[in-house]
């Protein structure tokens, strides 16, 4: 760190408005210094190596180099910078790879200002920071047993997948099948495992390809 009281930052996001907003936010608060900005993951890794910030605020989906690959590269290079993911996405296909790649924390962009400041301080100190929604997903992933790929879908799982293919939300699926949203999520986790995919779109595509749907 620059001083005991100052936390240095690198902002990595493909949207200039977001970068400007974050820079202004941290400039208006005591104890933070933004060293630079990057518009994609590749540029972010290079700047992190040059500037040696305490914390990298990392978006995930960016043209020219995504956040997960950047986090993995920062980890591979052994850089001391902690990575705090700041994104609009909290799906399993985004959350788990980012954490596995080496992110110290994961927040959504709608987090309140003070929550973001607290998260950055915690990340700089090496403490894990997760938004409540992300923490819940991680707990569910840990508690849900793995399902072998290739195992046939159950009748209920086929029903859930058929509704997913029509763009039906988890809440609407729960209402249609008279089950809880948590049960819908569990069915989806099993479906993803059996089909060897990570998200809804891929599950539907594979299901059509294998004639499970159609």
UniProtKB/TrEMBL annotation:
4-aspartylphosphate-modified residues are 59
Hydrolase as a keyword of this entry, yes or no, is: no
* Record-linked Gene3D superfamilies: 3.40.50.2300
CDD domains in UniProt:
LuxR_C_like, REC_NarL-like
Q: Which residues form the HTH luxR-type domain?
A: 146-211
Signal peptide segment: none
* SMART domains for the chain: HTH_LUXR, REC
Q: What is this protein called?
A: DNA-binding response regulator
Give the originating organism.
Streptomyces violascens
């Amino acid at each position: 760190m620059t001083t005991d009281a100052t936390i240095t930052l690198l902002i990595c996001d493909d949207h200039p408005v977001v970068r400007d907003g974050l820079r202004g936010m941290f400039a208006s608060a005591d104890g933070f210094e933004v060293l630079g900005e990057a518009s994609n993951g590749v540029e972010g890794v290079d700047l992190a190596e040059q500037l040696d910030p305490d914390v990298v605020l990392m978006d995930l989906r960016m043209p020219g180099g995504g956040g997960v690959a950047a986090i993995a590269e920062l980890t591979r290079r052994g850089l001391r910078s902690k990575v705090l993911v700041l994104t609009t996405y909290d799906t399993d296909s985004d959350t788990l790879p980012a954490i596995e790649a080496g992110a110290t924390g994961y927040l959504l962009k709608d987090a309140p200002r003070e929550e973001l400041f607290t998260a950055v301080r915690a990340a700089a100190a090496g403490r894990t920071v997760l938004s409540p929604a992300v923490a819940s997903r991680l707990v569910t992933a840990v508690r849900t047993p793995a399902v072998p790929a290739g195992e046939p879908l159950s009748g209920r799982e086929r029903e859930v997948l058929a509704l997913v293919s029509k763009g039906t939300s988890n809440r609407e699926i729960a209402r249609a099948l008279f089950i809880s949203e948590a049960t819908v999520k569990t069915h989806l986790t099993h479906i993803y495992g059996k089909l060897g995919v990570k998200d809804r779109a891929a599950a539907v595509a594979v299901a059509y390809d294998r004639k499970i749907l159609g």
